[in-house]
């Protein structure tokens, strides 16, 4: 016996039905018939000629539908047997994807852990000092190299093309040449401090331009003595192109000259006018000394003193031979004059 005779539920293990509690193996109880239902016959029919009895409310006709019998509340209820659900067939499941050899979710650490494992070393508070020192040293090295290889006039030693102490063979005039002495003469040194020997010298010039009147009505002269007054706003100038002309400097006493130089134009600036480009500028000169030696100096077109180192030479006079000048100044303010604003002859007194 697999089902309960009372409720029809599947029987399990035990002596009673797990659904309704009926003892297993006992016959099903017989339900008592329901008691008869009394039917109210209603009022007797009225005579056909009798008027209808007035009523306060209309009476609805009885529903001819039979009334279902009422079950005995004392009888044991019989639960309906629910049909057994059909067996569920498990849905086919997709095969699990094959796991790769390297799984990022499994093999990679969270970014917090990665950052914790690879923290950068903090920069020490004074580490920038080493960078600054390195930059300063690099700049200093560049400055030293520039000074070493610069072609500044003050640091250039002039060669002496006409010196008798040249290393080239000397021509004797008869086709034979003689080598210079193995022991060169010792260069003169002089005594005392280095000074500008031109400050006390006298200047002899080939000519002087006449004085003029400036924009303020002042008379401006161009005397030779203004090449030694230490004022770059004054000048000596001569008319036209002075190429081939010479200025002679006579020292008050013999001296040992080691450096020469001059300001190669008229460097005065007044009332917004720059007279340097408005006059001729000297491009090159030749310096001559008493022993017959000479050196050549070239100039850039810039106002200011431009000096040249020369082999130390003892002399009483120096000649400045002008070899090249620029064209006259252009425009309304252009002037056709060759000018020298200042001359420097640096040396010591002869011993």
- How many strand elements? 15
Low-confidence parts lasting 5 or more residues at pLDDT below 50? 54-64, 73-77, 111-119, 151-155, 159-184
Q: Give the CATH topology of the domain at 188-349.
A: Jelly Rolls
State the helix count: 3
* CATH class type of the domain at 188-349: Mainly Beta
The helix-strand sequence is HHHEEEEEEEEEEEEEEE
Characterize the largest beta sheet: strand count, sense, and whether it forms a barrel: 7 strands, antiparallel
Biased composition (Acidic residues): 173-185
Protein name: NAD glycohydrolase translocation F5/8 type C domain-containing protein
Biased composition (Pro residues): 30-55, 80-95
Organism: Nocardioides zhouii
Features:
351 residues; mainly beta; Jelly Rolls; seven-stranded antiparallel sheet; 3 helices; 15 strands; 10% helix; rod-shaped
Concise overview:
Among the domains are: 1-30; 188-349, Sandwich (Jelly Rolls). The relative contact order is 0.13. The radius of gyration is 67 Å and the shape is rod-shaped.
Write up what this structure looks like.
Among the domains are: 1-30; 188-349, Sandwich (Jelly Rolls). Mean pLDDT is 76; it is low at 54-64, 73-77, 111-119, 151-155 and 159-184. 10% of the residues lie in helices and 25% in strands. The protein is mostly beta strands and 351 residues long. Strands 3, 4, 8, 11, 12, 13 and 15 form a 7-stranded antiparallel β-sheet that branches. A two-stranded antiparallel ribbon has the order 1-2. The chain has a two-stranded antiparallel sheet with strand order 5-6. The radius of gyration is 67 Å and the shape is rod-shaped. The chain has helices at residues 104-107, 111-117, 127-149; strands at 170-171, 177-178, 191-196, 202-204, 212-213, 219-220, 236-239, 246-263, 269-270, 273-274, 282-288, 294-298, 306-325, 337-340, 342-349. It has 3 helices and 15 strands.
């Amino acid at each position: 016996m697999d089902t309960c005779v009372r409720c029809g539920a599947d029987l399990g293990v035990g002596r009673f039905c797990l659904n309704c509690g009926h003892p297993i193996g006992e016959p099903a109880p017989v339900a008592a018939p329901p008691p008869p239902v009394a039917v109210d016959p209603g009022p007797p029919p009225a005579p056909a000629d009798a008027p209808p009895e007035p009523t306060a409310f209309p009476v609805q006709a009885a529903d001819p539908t039979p009334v279902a019998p009422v079950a005995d509340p004392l009888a044991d209820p019989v639960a309906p047997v629910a049909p057994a659900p059909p067996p569920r067939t498990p849905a086919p499941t997709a095969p699990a994807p094959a796991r790769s050899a390297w799984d990022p979710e499994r093999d990679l650490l969270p970014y917090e852990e990665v950052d914790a494992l690879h923290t950068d070393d903090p920069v020490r508070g004074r580490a920038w000092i080493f960078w600054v020192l390195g930059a300063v040293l690099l700049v200093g090295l560049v400055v030293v190299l520039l000074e070493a290889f610069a072609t500044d006039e003050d640091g250039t030693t002039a060669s002496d093309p006409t010196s008798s102490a040249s290393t080239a063979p000397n021509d004797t005039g008869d086709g034979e040449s003689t080598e210079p002495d193995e022991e060169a003469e010792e260069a003169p040194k002089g005594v005392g401090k280095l000074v500008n020997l031109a400050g006390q010298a006298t200047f002899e010039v080939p000519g002087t331009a006449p004085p003029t009147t400036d924009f303020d009505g002042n008379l401006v002269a161009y005397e030779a003595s203004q090449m030694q007054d230490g004022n770059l706003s004054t000048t000596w100038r001569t008319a036209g192109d002075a190429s081939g002309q010479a200025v002679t400097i006579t020292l008050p006493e013999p001296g040992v000259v080691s450096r020469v130089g001059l300001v190669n134009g008229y460097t005065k600036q007044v009332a917004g006018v720059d007279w340097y480009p408005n006059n001729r500028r000297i491009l090159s000169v030749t310096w001559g000394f008493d022993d017959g030696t000479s050196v050549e100096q070239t100039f850039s077109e810039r106002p200011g003193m431009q000096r040249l180192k020369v082999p130390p030479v003892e002399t009483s006079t120096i000649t400045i031979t002008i070899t090249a000048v620029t064209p006259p100044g252009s425009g309304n303010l252009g002037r056709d004059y060759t000018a020298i604003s200042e001359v420097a002859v640096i040396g010591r007194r002869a011993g």
